[in-house]
Every structure is written in structure tokens, then in C-alpha cells.
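Form 7-S
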Amino acid sequence: MQLNIYVPKDRAEILELLDRVAARSNRPKNEIVLEALERYLMDLTPRMLGKFSLGEVKDIDREKLYERGLKG
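Output:
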């Protein structure tokens, strides 16, 4: 699969930095970009705990919690 990315002229320093890192690390540029993209996307993805996940945890209102305990 192929992905083309447009880099505006005012962000050309990113490509220059990519060239330097690829040369210094002796790695292909596409490998570096894919690794960076994967890390970025993983940081955005909420971590699930599998079957033990409690879902989104909300702030606890202590007063309401005690009211429910006395009524239930």
C-alpha cells in the first residue's frame, strides 16, 4: 500500500530532519515515518483492559454515593 503526504514549504525542515535521521540511523525514511505514525496513533487510542475494563471512569459524588447506599 502507498501513502503520499503533502508537506508545505513552510514545514520543509521536517523533511530535512527526516533525511538526517535516516542517514544517521541507516534506516529507510518510510520505516521512520511509519514508526512515528504508529506511536502517535497509539497515544491517541484509549487503552482497554479487556474483560476487566470498567469503561469510562467518572468523578464520584460522595453525597450521591451514600444516598444510594442508604436507599438500596
